[in-house]
Design brief:
Elements lengths: L1 H10 L17 H14 L10 H7 L3 E5 L7 E6 L2 E7 L8 H10 L1
Parallel strand pairs: 1-3
Antiparallel strand pairs: 2-3
Length: 108
């Protein structure tokens, strides 16, 4: 993480993450759609498909890594040193169309 932070500082990516859903709770299935709408509005993403989810997450202060992993690992997300991180198994992208790759990153 420290090396990634150094690189991001050099290229000017944000270090801090501002959670667009701070305090938001999901109690029913409809809340998921409301959460997605709130993120899109807070991050000015518009209503259409995102051309590059990976780059958008990085621009918002979320680190995204692809790692060589066994088929049993799709990916996971969490925090490292207070910074949100998404880790994805690279094997999943081999035969996926771009649309499926975008959805895969977003679900973590």
């Amino acid at each position: 993480m420290a090396r990634c932070r150094g690189i991001d500082q050099i290229v000017g990516l944000p270090l801090g993450f501002k959670n667009p859903l701070a305090g938001f709770r999901v109690w029913r299935p409809e809340d998921i759609e409301e959460a997605a709408d709130q993120v899109r509005a807070n991050w000015n993403l518009g209503g259409g498909p995102l051309s590059n989810v990976h780059e958008m997450l990085k621009a918002k202060g979320i680190f995204v890594f692809e790692v060589e992993a066994p088929d049993s690992l799709d990916g996971f997300s969490g925090y490292a040193d207070g910074q949100p991180v998404v880790v994805l198994g690279s094997w999943l992208n081999k035969d996926l169309p771009v649309r499926a790759q975008r959805g895969r990153i977003a679900r973590f």
